[in-house]
Amino acid sequence: MLCCMPGVAFVPALLVSWSSAAFIISYAIAVLAGHVEPFVPYISDTGTKPPESGVFGFMSNISALLASITMYIRYLLIEKQNESSHFVRSSCNMFTLCVGLMGCTGMGIVATFQELAVPSVHDIGALVAFGSGVLYITLQSIISYKSCPRWNTYFVCHIRMAISVISCIAFIPMIVFASKISMTKIDWTPGEKDYTYHFMSAICEWTVAFGFIFFFLTFIRDFQRFSVRISTEIHEE
User: Member of which family (predicted)?
Assistant: First the structure.
């Protein structure tokens, strides 16, 4: 049996669309329900209380799955290109995939363990998701430069590296400011203790999150030239 998919650009496109919707829908429900202030809450704050917690958990887990599939296809694409060009070591490509899958696991932890229910597990998951995610897009940016000019244009490489740099810059203050917050809560109001730390950390968090989304958006064109063939052989004895 041979199943052929001519082009897989729909995978990163679906990932970008679904992830954007996950953030926006859970945010809108949380704000309309009065659970968070509309001005820059943490992403996790918008998925902590019912009913938005169910939407956030379900959609985020699907996003983690789509991201895993996208990363694996990207790995296969680089392996195929590398057969003729030899622009990157296979071990480096595999390491990059493992880093990305680790980030997806962290996202699954964030979606499953709500911020107020199990804060320590949630925070570890968030740290793994954002840290691995930033490292993954940085490594992918470097690999993209190595594949120029045959497999990528320098324009696309510059965009990917710019997104990676911005995400790296935002990731550090996100962690620093979050570490200075002395309480775990979601209903922040301006002027209260630690609000400034929360506000700055939340801005950085949204920056990194949408950095990931825009980065995967750049995969769409590459995936248009790639098809996945799955072959299953059945032997009778």
Answer: Belongs to the DRAM/TMEM150 family.
**Cα–Cα distance for residue pair 80/157, rounded to 1 Å:** 19
User: Is residue 2 helix, strand or coil?
Assistant: strand
- 119-144 burial code (b ≥16 CB/10 A, e <16): eeebbebbbbbbbbbbbbbbbbbbbb
Write out pLDDT tens, residues 108-166.
999 999 888 888 899 999 999 999 999 999 999 999 999 988 888 999 999 999 999 99
Instruction: Give the span between the Cα atoms of 23 and 160, in whole angstroms.
Output: 22
3-state secondary structure (DSSP) of residue 5: strand
* 237 inside domain: no
DSSP 14: H
Is the C-alpha dihedral spanning 219, 200, 102, 26 positive or negative? negative
Query: How many domains does one find in the chain?
Result: 1
Q: How far apart are CA 36 and CA 98, in angstroms?
A: 35
Tokens linked to 45: 């704050």
Residue 107 lies in a domain: yes
In a domain, 17, yes or no: yes
CA distances from 71 to 52, 84, 97, 186 (A): 28, 21, 6, 32
The closest of 134, 156, 135 to 221, measured between CA atoms, is 156
Cα distance between residue 125 and residue 214, in whole Å: 22
Q: What is the pTM of this model?
A: 0.91
Tokens of 190: 């301006």
82 and 108 Cβ atoms separated by less than 8 Å: no
Cβ count within 10 A of residue 93? 21
